[in-house]
Amino acid sequence: MPAVGTRHEQARELLNRLQIPVCPVMLGNRAVFGDSGAVGQAAQEYDERGKGASEILQVYKYILSTLVQLKDKDKQEHHEHQSELNRAAG
Question: Which of 8, 12, 32, 87 supports an S-S bond with 52, CB 3.0-4.6 Å?
């Protein structure tokens, strides 16, 4: 997200209106992202206690949680489909 302005908020509002999920964590416009990339490191390697590293970790946790929820939903839908097939087979 930019250091100044509301462009990120406008984008979030639009995506929400379109019912597109948006990660609640925003990555700040931090020097660590450029600095770490310049030396071939991730933000967590370059400054493991910094705000950039914390933001990346929060995004990772959000993505992981979302994938687990999708996997659970897929398993449930598969189970329901199998139950329907079993009932139809009699």
Answer: 32
Maximum alpha-carbon separation in the chain: 64
Verdict on whether the full-model pTM lies above 0.85: no
Torsion of CA 84, 85, 89, 90, to 10 degrees: -30
Alpha helices in the chain (DSSP H): 7-17, 31-38, 43-46, 51-89
- As given in the structure block, the two tokens for residue 25 are 């964590």
Q: Which of 29, 53, 30 is nearest to 41 (CA)?
A: 53
Residue 20 gets the label, from left (phi > 0), alpha (psi -120 to 50) or beta, of: beta
Q: Which amino acid belongs to residue 75?
A: K
Radius of gyration of the chain (CA): 20
Q: How far apart are CA 56 and CA 73, in angstroms?
A: 26
For residue 85, pLDDT beyond 90: no
CB 56 within 8 A of CB 44: yes
